[in-house]
Structures are given as C-alpha cells and as structure tokens.
Design a protein that fits this description.
Largest sheet: 7 strands, mixed
Distance between the termini: 40 Å
Shape: globular
Helix content: under 10%
Order of helices and strands: EEEEEEEEEEE
Radius of gyration: 14 Å
Length: 120
C-alpha cells in the first residue's frame, strides 16, 4: 500500500528554521517526482518546491516566494525527501503536504500533512 508520511512540523518564531521529512513506502522511490505543497487556512493548496525523480536527474524548482530560503532534497537510501526551511515568516504558516507523482502513469499520492506555524 503506497504511503507518504510527513513529519517535522511545529511552532517556530519568525527567522527560525524547520526541516520537514516525507518518508515513502510501497512505491519505487527513485521513479517518482516529489513535491512539497502547502495550504494556509482559506487559501488554495500551492506548490512550494519540486524535485525530479532520481531516474530523471533530481533537478529542483521552487516557488518564487521561497526566495532561496527553502531547500528540497532526496535521500534515496532512506526513501525520504526533505524540505529545509530557513528564515521562516508568519506567512509561511500552513499545512505542508508531500506529493509523489509518476506522470507517465498518471499516478499521484499525498501524505497527510504536517502543520507549520510561525508566530511572534
């Protein structure tokens, strides 16, 4: 059974850092494009960061609002992706979701989300 499990969310003050993790099971890890999305209350879910499958080359892209503050990475041995977040701001407060996609097969899987709250 495919499963994505996020962890690492929490409460942090502005300027602080967090590292989110997303552990995959039940899927062939290196075949999947992986992404982090977020959804704030009353807003639509939005893409934060993307990393191509290891098979395709691991290229990364980021939303403009990341502005060099976030880094997405992959650990194939641990079947886990990470989102290192620095210089967090109140507007980064949201539930962060991990997504795994295999585009040629039209497959997409989501984790349950992890809450990130940035407050003064």
């Amino acid at each position: 059974q495919p499963q994505l499990v996020e962890s690492g969310g929490g409460l942090v003050q502005p300027g602080g850092s967090l590292r989110l993790s997303c552990a995959m099971s039940g899927l062939t890890f290196h075949q999947y494009d992986m992404s982090w999305y977020r959804q704030a209350p009353g807003k639509e879910r939005e893409l934060v960061a993307f990393i191509e499958s290891a098979f395709a080359g691991d290229r990364t892209t980021y939303a403009a609002f990341v502005e060099g503050r976030f880094t997405i990475s992959r650990d194939t041995a641990k079947r886990t992706i990470y989102l290192q977040m620095r210089d967090l701001r109140p507007e980064d407060t949201a539930v962060y979701y991990c997504n795994a996609a295999l585009v040629p097969a039209a497959l997409s899987f989501w984790g349950q989300g992890t809450q990130v709250t940035v407050f003064s």
